[in-house]
Write a structure and sequence with these properties.
By secondary structure, the chain is α/β, with parallel strands linked by helices. It has one domain: 2-Layer Sandwich (Nucleotidyltransferase, domain 5). It has eight helices and five strands; from the N terminus they run E-E-E-H-H-E-H-E-H-H-H-H-H.
Length: about 200
């Protein structure tokens, strides 16, 4: 079985978990803080530093845990301001770029799909966490509330994608037979010759 990195991408907090065969290997949160006001630097430079921090963090996780695929909750786009929307877009772009540069297949799930793992109707973060704790009683969830919510959402993304092609491929007999090479996988990655 292969290890899968599952993410709740955010610009301030990116929750992550590494799973192998449906079990949690590790989990945590990559945090960045806005520092432009503190150091008197341009906001654009600060944002670039934060993007690099997230990218380095993801690349380190991929390397340290021998990740073979990524599942990510797509940013919702439901933020209430241009800056927040731009930050969510950056977080998603960082994940997509890291996956592309490291030749990893990536499957995206919607926030609605993550919420559906806990039922229908008005589903709260607490409802999603309850589902996560029922599935993984010893889940290594962070103590800090904001980090805990992001790791919980990352695990919810895994549950939402669990029966999808990528997770089945990485956990199934095709991978065990050595047929997964990290390149073309179920249309998640395609050869781009001539572009």
């Amino acid at each position: 079985m292969s290890r899968i990195l599952t993410l709740d991408a955010g610009f301030t907090s990116t929750g992550w978990a590494v799973l192998e065969g449906g079990g949690i290997v590790a989990a945590g949160c990559i945090r960045t803080e806005r520092s432009a006001k503190k150091r008197g630097i341009r906001v654009a430079d600060d944002d670039a530093d934060r993007c690099a921090t997230i990218a380095r963090g993801l690349a380190g996780i991929v390397q340290n845990y021998a990740i073979r695929g990524i599942v990510c909750e797509a940013p919702s786009g439901g933020a209430k301001g241009a800056r927040a929307i731009a930050c969510m877009a950056r977080a998603g772009a960082i994940v997509a770029t890291v996956a592309e540069l490291l030749a990893l297949p990536c499957e995206w799930v919607t926030p609605q799909a993550v919420k559906r793992t806990a039922g229908t109707g008005a589903v709260s973060k607490a409802d999603v966490e309850a589902v996560i704790l029922r599935r993984w009683q010893d889940a290594p969830l962070p103590r800090l509330k904001c980090e805990r919510e992001h790791v919980t959402d990352a695990l919810g993304a895994y549950l939402a994608a669990e029966h999808g092609q990528l997770v089945r491929m990485l956990n199934g007999p095709v991978q065990a037979a050595g047929l997964l090479d990290g390149q073309t996988l179920l249309g998640a990655r395609t050869e781009r010759g001539g572009e």
